[in-house]
What does this fold into?
Amino acid sequence: MKTQTVRAVNALTSRWAGHAADGTGTVFTAAGVWPLLALLADGAAGPARSELEEALGISAGTAAGAARELLASLDGVRGLRAATGLWTRRDLPLEAAWSDRLPAGTRGTLTGDEDTDRKALDAWAADRTGGLVEKMPVPVTDGTLFVLASALALRLRWIQPFTPWPTWIDEGPWAAGSVGTVQGLSRSTALLDRARVAHAPTGPVTLLEVVGNGGVDVHLVLGEPQARPGQTLRAGIAAVTRAIPSTGASLLPEGNPGPGLRIDQVPSVDRQPWLSIATVAFEVQAEHDLLASAGLFGLRSASDARTGHFPGISRRPLAVGSARQSAVARFHAEGFEAAAVTAIGAVGAGAPRFKYRVRRAQVAFHRPFGFLAVHRTSRLVLAAGWVAEPLAYVEQDHSAAEEEEWAKADAEGWS
It folds into this structure.
């Protein structure tokens, strides 16, 4: 992936985090929005083109090529699927110069019949995300002239799974009296630097890197209790993209050097240090109306239906009538799943013998925190979100169903 494009997408992710992370559970992916904005910019003129360029962080003249390259790169990441689709009315003439620069993907026709078109678009969304997102997020009416959509779906297994266990949290907003018994996840490792602390202008954040089996890892981000969610997420994005430095737990001072993190010396049977991890399983879903923050996405002028803004797409006057994203993320003992569809429509035991003292780091994510799914090589943030509530603990055996689901995913090449 081109560094310029990765930086541009991550910048949009960071700005969006300031708007979307308001304390409720959410998930969003600028990597799904950015290519669509780039394709619109390629065919835009006037103020709409300028606003889209500002939101994209690159020139409109290079936007279509950058979108194609980004989507092709994403589709080549193990465990990640990326797709685009364009559906137009038969009577909508498209400019060949624009349509020829579109990424490879689905091309379809809108019939004008709302039920027929809705079923076709929903089927595409469900198929491209493996059922994680079941519906196309934008409305389709008899006045919809075209729908431009992207789908991203990520599924990965942890290199080292967690152990699930019923957890009672005794302080903070997730104390047992508030949420009851939650689905805790725990594990330990000798790799202390999986936990790091970064100091942003808005305060310190603790990050935990959970390594996936492909090219994508998930980073959990915990800020100070009083920090705003958007601030915590933006600090986490800056840290994982290496815009600000972070320090691994092997080099941090003893005590409490970061939120939710404690470091001390303990007796041990060997010389290995260890990191003890406690977190919770979660599932978040969100629907985002991009036009509600039109300025953030460069869509303010483009959504003014009093005139056309995209002569490079069609000689027929067009304006953005809807722009929405549906997203979901699930974090559990075995792995992580996330998907988003974005669309723009116009209109151990025993008695050990302790011979050593070693460094121990303990990190706990037992109050609201952020998460970031990051491509390991490029540092592109594929998905970001906020966990406002953990999953409740339910004592039942999921193993058979889970194994069947993961076996299907493996067979399809997702992991």
Notes: The chain has a mean pLDDT of 92. The first strand starts at residue 26 and ends at 28. The chain has two domains: 3-154+284-346, 157-281+354-392.
